[in-house]
Amino acid sequence: MPDLQRLIETRLARHLRRAPAVVAAEVYEYLARSTAGAAAGRNNPERFWSLLPRWLLEDARFAAGPGGAARLNDILWAQYCLVLFVRIHDDLFDQQAAPGAIVFVADQLLLESETTLAKHAPDHAFWRIFRATVSTTLAGILKADALQRQPGAMNAKALRLHAEVSSIFKVGAAAICVGAGRMREFRHISRCADELAIAEQLLDDLFDIEEDVARGRYTFVANQLCTGRDGAIDLHSGPGHQVPFGDGIAAVLHRATQHVTRARRAIDRVGLAPAMRYLDAFKRRLEQLRPAIHRARVAHVFRDIIATGGRGMVPSASKRAPSAGNRHVAS
Amino acid sequence: VPDDALLKVVFRAMKDEGFFKRLEKDPAATVREAGIKLSEQELEHLREAMKSPSTVTVYLPDFLREVHQKHLLGGLGDDGWVSLAWVVGFKPRKD
């Protein structure tokens, strides 16, 4: 298996050699401080989008056609170019990146993706999928952003938008499936990727809730935790950004687990064993997270009793002062 | 399992989500049914702590780090860090 990080670094360096040095420096600076760096595999090299093409090409049913390792490398590189193209535009749109030459670099990455894939995927059926996924992603970003600007608008039905936003992640798998004449399998793979995208976005939103709400983005998770059944809380009114502490987190994890289960069911129809194992492991870890969160919640609720070893007076709730060390606050 | 009766309740609540939910509704009856004997003062401490557990607020990034360091790590062994980071693509900062 190719080292994804090395592959991307090498090809990105080669690609940027054509650009003026000052522009290349701008791109490297952007990658160093943005979340796009994570997409390059720096923090988490083995994500589903990069693993799926490898798994498919290792399977005799999908490995039809010439190319071998070079084909896999091209598909991974093309997939990465597409992801980075969208990510740069999204960061510019979100004002998380400063406008500049980087917008042209992003557009060139889109063309680089097309040029690279054209070597291996001349079929019209593939290019229809390619255009549809790029269009779906771009439209999904705009729709999700519009909804997330209104508290409460991003509801369970709208979670589908996360799958749309992640549509481009299917391009690598599409190139392989079209080449192998496996469109029936691609439909299941596509469904699996959609469900997984929703699950992963729920988890990302759980961990990014503070930043999202500070930017005025009411994600589904923020709506669940802040204005859902745990009671309405204005996150801007508290010291730091506080979230209510009821069953909301468990509910989010439960929903994420449901989407992983559906993803597993979809990939089961393809019989792609490594993907099945990946999703099983993902689900197992999610299931381990829930009781851990429960234990932490109980420890928090009974922190005074635990601190005194079960003895001594417990201060009344109204007299409890926020702990400076961990910023936990009892309301 | 700790000797102290109140800590026994805490220990049981950590292991059993249903027990914790029942405590919220009726601490005295729940503890009695579990066969744990509490003094009136201990029961008062318990009631105070369980008054409104759902309205207690936390700073979520700190809370999730706490989950990781104290609860998940303990439950999963040395690869606990890896497990959570792997699931969410996030690594809590080490203080």
Unreliable runs of chain B: 73-95
Total helical segments of chain A: 15
Distance, first to last CA of chain A = 52 Å
**Uncertain residue segments of chain A:** 36-45, 227-242, 312-331
Helix content of chain A: 55-70%
Q: Beta-strand level of the residues of chain B, as a percent range?
A: under 5%
Question: Level of helix content of chain B?
Answer: 55-70%
Secondary-structure element order of chain B, N to C: HHHHEHH
What would you call the shape of chain A?
A: globular
Return the structural class of chain B: mainly alpha
Number of strands of chain B: 1
Question: What's the overall average pLDDT of chain B, rounded?
Answer: 69
Query: What is the 3D form of chain B?
Result: elongated
Mean model confidence by pLDDT of chain A:
81
| Helix count, DSSP H or I runs of 4 or more residues of chain B | 6
Major beta sheet summary of chain A: none
Q: Most extensive chain contact? A: A-B, 56 and 47 residues
- Which structural class do the helices and strands of chain A define? mainly alpha
- Rounded to the nearest angstrom, the radius of gyration of chain B is 16 Å
Multimer state: heterodimer
What would your notes on this structure say?
The complex is a heterodimer of chains A (331) and B (95). Chain A has 331 residues and is mainly alpha-helical. Helices cover 66% and strands 1% of the residues of chain A. Chain A has helices at residues 4-16, 21-33, 36-39, 48-58, 68-93, 102-118, 124-148, 160-165, 171-179, 183-207, 209-214, 220-226, 248-268, 273-301, 303-307; one strand at residues 243-244. The longest helix of chain A has 29 residues, at 273-301. Residues 36-45, 227-242 and 312-331 of chain A have low confidence and may be disordered. By secondary structure, chain B is an all-alpha fold. Chain B contains six helices and one strand; from the N terminus they run ααααβαα. Chain B has helices at residues 5-15, 17-25, 27-33, 40-49, 60-76, 80-88, and one strand at residues 57-58. The longest helix of chain B is centred in the C-terminal third of the chain and has 17 residues, at 60-76. The radius of gyration of chain B is 16 Å and the shape is elongated. The relative contact order of chain B is 0.09. Mean pLDDT of chain B is 69; it is low at 73-95. The chains are: A mainly alpha (331), B mainly alpha (95). Chains A and B meet through helix 10, strand 1, helix 14 and helix 15 of A and helix 1, helix 4, strand 1, helix 5 and helix 6 of B.
